[in-house]
Amino acid sequence: MTETVICVGGVVRRTDSILLVRQSTGHPLAGLWTIPWGRTDHGESPTAAVIREIREEAGVYARVDGLLGMQELPEPWLGMLGIVFLCGHEKGAPVPDMRETDAAEYVDARRLTEISASIEPLSAWMARRVLADEFSLIEANEAGPFVPSPTYL
What we know:
seven-stranded mixed β-sheet, about 20% helix, globular
């Protein structure tokens, strides 16, 4: 039996826009815009991983505002579980890392429509829903038994 791989993604919101990155040549999603995402490192928590991935891929410092949801990933990523967080912009301007990403920008609903043909489907779906305020957010519950580790319930 193989271990499940935990992937994390962050929908980073700044006023009426969200952060997208474009995946570089050599990446399985090369040329497509996505939310910042990646795998957790060994022993790394999902919340720490999403903050790291946002900073690495887009140069933006963000905070986790809550849990948006999860997605069991389809072929060719079977065995991977995606955990998606809603994040808020803290500081920094979007800058691609030029390894994994070759572009990074905040997009509003109009810009999202302009680039819709080149957005990865799950990222596009989440972006549209967050920009339209059509989502449910599970905020961290400070009464959880393992504080300061976040409990989403």
